[in-house]
Design a protein that fits this description.
Blueprint lengths: L1 E6 L4 E6 L4 E6 L7 H14 L5 E11 L2 E11 L4 E9 L5 E9 L5 E8 L24 E3 L1
């Protein structure tokens, strides 16, 4: 079992491995606060510039959990496989609320690997809700920076 605490403001993360009784503090390589939006932006830019074999497709509107969404996909032809990601974007607030990930040896033989559904809440966490790391809570653990 493990825990990861990330502080996006300071770009630090602490990984606690309970089975090994080790704690590692390190810098976060990138300060991406919305990784799904970042992935969408990168794929969008590649498709727009016709880079790295990325194709964009628009599928129209679809209902996802009672929300009207725009459905789009990006198909990426890599050296050894084809990856296709479908994004469902809420038309009311422009948030990505669902993402499906497929891969296969070609675009005719894609298998669904993963589906993620997202919901968003704002102003629901207070400063008291945020965990604060205290090394004193782990007296038997080896700590590394």
């Amino acid at each position: 079992m493990s825990e990861t605490l990330q502080n996006l403001e300071s770009s630090e993360q602490i990984i606690i491995l309970h089975t090994d009784k080790t704690i590692t503090k390190s810098s976060i390589m990138t300060n991406v606060k919305e990784p799904l939006k970042e992935t969408f932006s990168i794929l969008s830019e590649k498709a727009k510039q016709n880079k790295e074999n990325v194709d964009y497709k628009y599928y129209g509107k679809e209902n996802v959990e009672g929300r009207e969404c725009i459905k789009v996909s990006f198909e990426e032809s890599l050296t050894d496989k084809v990856v296709e990601r479908y994004f469902y974007i809420d038309v009311e607030n422009n948030y990505i609320i669902k993402c499906e990930y497929y891969e296969g040896t070609n675009d005719q033989e894609l298998n669904k690997i993963q589906t993620e559904t997202y919901s968003y809440e704002f102003n629901s966490v207070t400063d008291d809700d945020i965990l604060k790391f205290d090394i004193n809570n782990y007296p038997d653990y080896q700590y590394t920076e």
